[in-house]
Amino acid sequence: MFGKSEDQTYGISRKERILTYGLEDWQLDLLSEVVKVEKIKDRELEIFVSEEFTDIFAIAHFMAFLNFAAVQEKDQQMFLSYWLECTDTDRSEIPDEFLDDLNTRMPLTYILNCGLNEIIKMPYLFFDNKIFENKSKLRLSALQEIKNLEGKGRMANENHSQKLERILLMYQFLVYKGWLTREKADQLFIDKYRLRDDPLSLRMFQRDMQIIRNIDGNVRYDQDSKMYILDWAKK
Asked: What is the pLDDT of residue 180?
């Protein structure tokens, strides 16, 4: 499950590796718990614990968690400049089939404890100090990216954070209430975002629920009540 900088890494593709730098032991344990049973094309995932920050450029990976508290400011600036250079492209000139190609786009990366005063918003890069404080969010984020790599995920027009927030809202309601319908999910979004002109389609709801069911095996569809049920939740 775990690999380190001095370990042999040949034979493992970027689609099988999550890279970390500067994480605390409890964060590594939580990440391991979240993905320990997951596989990509029947091959187990590796959590690569980097001891050199420059590994971020040299070691292939599909997802990364970087603690900038352990990174010198000049290296933080270098990394963000590199990311901006790689993503600052006129997307209108790129064929649609390559826009979200998982083999060519930047890996989904979470930055913790960034001390820079000015942060530019960039694709696939998220500054989130609390990602490890919310196990459900961490799990949904990792599992959705894994499903994308398997060709089972949804690379929709919405961005990653919007999709993750919507699914997390649905899953949290399931955890606390024990049931969910499309109508209730639609109402949740109206209450939260005040968006009444963009209802949740049945197809999108079913796809979101499939993601949730892949993550939590206790979620099932009840034919009698016509709703999704979380068996162990208190109703």
From this structure: 94
